Amino acid sequence: MSRSPQKAPVIAVVGPSGVGKDSLMDALMQRHAGLLKQRRVITRAPELGGEDYEAVSEVEFADLCAERSFALHWAAHGLFYAIPQQIETARREASGVLVNLSRKVLLEAQAVFGDLVVLSVTAKPEALAARLSARGREDTAEVERRLARAGTPLPAGLAHVVEVDNSGDLQTAVVAAEAALLPWLQPVRA
Q: Looking at residue 74, what is its pLDDT?
């Protein structure tokens, strides 16, 4: 396993909508003080809630892209997403930096960040359907589209992938994720 002596790995948390990525990341950070979570910039209205993100307009997003404020950016589900350049500061201070990424940008993220570990979070279809319906952000047709995409495979060529099932109890998934990620976590620098 290749790792930078000065930077912690980026831990790309991926999985279908409703799988519990944010809950899993928050729980992992509670168990490991050295883990940090990088907020995404999203062209989603701030009142829509869900994850903790920085809401910007499409014009603001384009301006930030032009200013090279992002380490990584992409479009998905009719929105624009980005990881700010500040992630590099977090990598020098943390044992690992958790970030919610889209499967379609994983190879680019691996090229940009170098030390990338993919934490692929899965769940049974019935668990995903119940969670998507409960959050109320998508209509029935969108829930069906998201469920149909849930089985999309990860791209070939990723160096480090671990999979965790989050169909049931969150704590069970957290323990499994923690065990899988330990080999990549770096000591926190004083």
A: 96
Say if residue 18 carries a ligand binding annotation: yes
Is residue 7 marked as binding?
no
pTM of the model: 0.87
Rounded Cα distance between 84 and 185, Å, is 21
Residue 86, token pair as written in the block: 């500040």
Q: Is 50 annotated as a binding residue?
A: no
151 belongs to an annotated ligand binding site: no
Separation of alpha carbons 78 and 157, rounded Å: 27
Q: Is 17 annotated as a binding residue?
A: yes
**Residue 95: closest CA among 10, 2, 1:** 10
Reduced DSSP (H G I as helix, E B as strand, rest coil) percent helix, strand, coil of the chain, to 5 = 40, 25, 35
What percent of the chain lies above the pLDDT cut of 70? 93
Closest CA to 36 of 104, 107, 102, 88: 88
User: For residue 58, which amino acid is it?
Assistant: E
22 is annotated as contributing to ligand binding: yes
Domains and CATH numbers, the chain: 10-38+91-184 (3.40.50.300)
- Whether 1 contacts 116, CB under 8 Å: no
Residue 183 annotated as lining a ligand binding site: no
Question: Annotated binding residue at 21?
Answer: yes
pLDDT, tens only, 45-77 = 877 666 788 999 999 999 999 999 999 999 988
